[in-house]
C-alpha cells in the first residue's frame, strides 16, 4: 500500500490536494470519482483508498484502472480489487484477460483471477493461454502468468492446454510444474 501511495504522491502536481485526498472521508472520496477535471493520480488515489477500505463505489474506477496501459496502475487496481470483495470482480477480470485486443494489458487481470480463485478464473486463464500458444506470440509474460495461475488453481480442465504449453521454451518449466501439481492433486486428471 505504501508503494502505491508514494508513487501517487510523486505524481501529484499539488501536494495540498494530495494531502486532502489522503485524509478524505469515504463519501468525499466517492464524490471525487465523479468530479470534473480531476487528474488521473487523484482519481486513482480515491479509487484505491475506497477499494482498500472495501467500499464498492470504487469498483468501476478500479476496473478501468485494471485495464490501463501503465503497469503500476494495473497492479494497484488489482490489489484494491482483490481486497474489495465485490462479486463482479472475477467477471470483469475475466473479460479483460480474455479480450484479444487488450492482451498487452492482461498480466494483472490474469494474476487477479488467480488470486480470486473464482469459478471464472480457470476457464478465463485456459482461454487466454490457448490463444497465446501461437508460435512467436509476443505476450509470453501473460502466457507464463496463465500457466502459473493454472498451476496454482490446480483445475483438471487445464491439463490439455498445460501439455501444449510444455512445447514452448519460455513456458515449459512452469507448465511441467503446473502439470505435476495438477496430477498430485487430481491423480485421475
From TrEMBL:
Range of residues in the leader sequence = none
Determine if Lyase is one of this entry's keywords: yes
What InterPro entries does the record tag this protein with? ARM-like (IPR011989), ARM-type_fold (IPR016024), PBS_lyase_HEAT (IPR004155)
In its UniProt record, a GO molecular function of this protein is: lyase activity
Note the coiled coil stretches, chain numbering: none
Q: From which domain of life does this come?
A: Bacteria
**Keyword entries, A-Z:** Lyase
Q: What is this protein called?
A: Adenylosuccinate lyase
